[in-house]
Specification:
about 260 residues, mainly alpha, 10 helices, about 0% strand, binds zinc ion
């Protein structure tokens, strides 16, 4: 009976995640255009047909229609079902790690915002300010709910902002052009609020590694010298927050090496 309940709850959580994934694809399409993301009904961006009940099933619609709009046959990019799938999977991971709790709810919302940020930054090379406005109260609420001391939150914020600003202005001073965008700097300060002082160090470490990987990938794909850093920051933050043991391991290895 217990196993059955776990399977049912897991299945339900992943389905909720897939639906939020649909919201992510919608929001990441509309936010950079300055469009409303809540009340406006979904339409095909090509033929403008209002989408109905059968057109809005996450992943499934894309599979059944073989990735085409039912009305005008325009191709629906594969990133739509992939985004939905990634959101669903991460909700599932949260269920196994934290169960159905207030903490996993806040972490699920964090992942929704981060997914929007990843998709928008990959496509437009910007991090919309609206996302920061959501991440700030969410991060403060998260720390209040798990009882993080407030001086730790403040120290994390100052370290994140300090390193971000140093990289931003340092690069500009040394190379005469922008390296780290201001959206990234704001996000690093916010990551400090979410993480607190100690875990922000492994966060920056992992973000750096992911960033180098993205840079190499961008070069291999011949997408130009500038690459988005937001996705690396987002993935590093999600993993450092969801798996605090990773950042503990980081410090333990540091102790060991010393
Ligand atoms: Zn269409």
């Amino acid at each position: 009976m217990q196993a059955l309940r776990v399977v049912a709850e897991f299945f339900l959580t992943v389905c909720v995640g897939l639906s939020f994934g649909s919201f992510v694809t919608l929001a990441s399409y509309r936010l950079p255009l300055g469009e409303d993301i809540v009340v406006k009904p979904s339409r095909c961006p090509k033929c403008d047909t209002k989408l109905g009940f059968y057109d809005l099933w996450p992943v499934l619609t894309w599979l059944v229609t073989l990735g085409r709009c039912r009305y005008c046959k325009a191709a629906v990019p594969m990133r739509y079902p992939l985004t939905e799938l990634a959101t669903g999977i991460m909700f599932g991971v949260l269920y196994f790690k934290y169960g159905i709790t207030f903490q996993s709810l806040l972490l699920a919302l964090l992942w929704v915002v981060l997914m929007i940020m990843i998709v928008v930054d990959l496509e437009h090379y910007i991090i919309p300010d609206q996302l920061h406005y959501v991440l700030l109260p969410l991060g403060l609420g998260y720390n209040a709910s798990i009882g993080t001391p407030w001086d730790d939150v403040l120290n994390g914020f100052m370290l994140g902002a300090g390193i971000g600003l140093t990289l931003h202005f340092g690069y500009r001073y040394l190379r005469g052009k922008e390296g780290l965008g201001f959206g990234d700097v704001k996000f690093m300060a916010l990551a400090g609020i979410w993480l607190g002082l100690k875990p922000i160090v492994p966060f920056l470490f992992f973000a750096g590694i992911f960033g180098v990987a993205t840079g190499l990938l961008w070069r291999a794909l011949k997408k130009g010298p500038i690459f988005p850093f937001g996705p690396s920051l987002a993935v590093a933050l999600y993993f450092c927050i969801t798996f605090p043991e990773v950042s503990n391991l980081f410090w333990n290895i540091g102790q060991f090496v010393k």
